[in-house]
Specification:
By secondary structure, the chain is mostly helical. 45% of the residues lie in helices and 11% in strands. The chain is built from 5 helices and 2 strands; from the N terminus they run αβααβαα. A two-stranded antiparallel sheet has the order 1-2. The radius of gyration is 12 Å and the shape is globular.
Length: 74
């Protein structure tokens, strides 16, 4: 999927540290993980399960590539 098609499906890319300070267990997220990028969709998206399986990326462009790859398969 191209980026525009992903955007139309509600896919967004964020940097971990711009959104989260703590993980789901309440522990501080390490600085090196805060620099990573992740793929996100709304909670009611049919792509949610697919997106949750996408690993963190080192760059924003890598996150978009991972989103395109996984969402094409999902």
């Amino acid at each position: 999927m191209e980026r525009e098609a992903l955007l139309e499906q509600g896919v967004a890319i964020y940097q971990v540290g711009d959104v989260f300070d703590i993980d789901t267990d309440g522990a501080a997220i390490p600085k090196n993980e805060k620099a990573k990028w992740f793929v996100s969709v709304p909670a009611n998206s049919p792509l949610l399960a697919t997106v949750l399986a996408i690993p963190l990326a080192d760059t924003e462009n890598e996150a978009w590539r991972l989103a395109a790859h996984h969402c094409r398969l999902g």
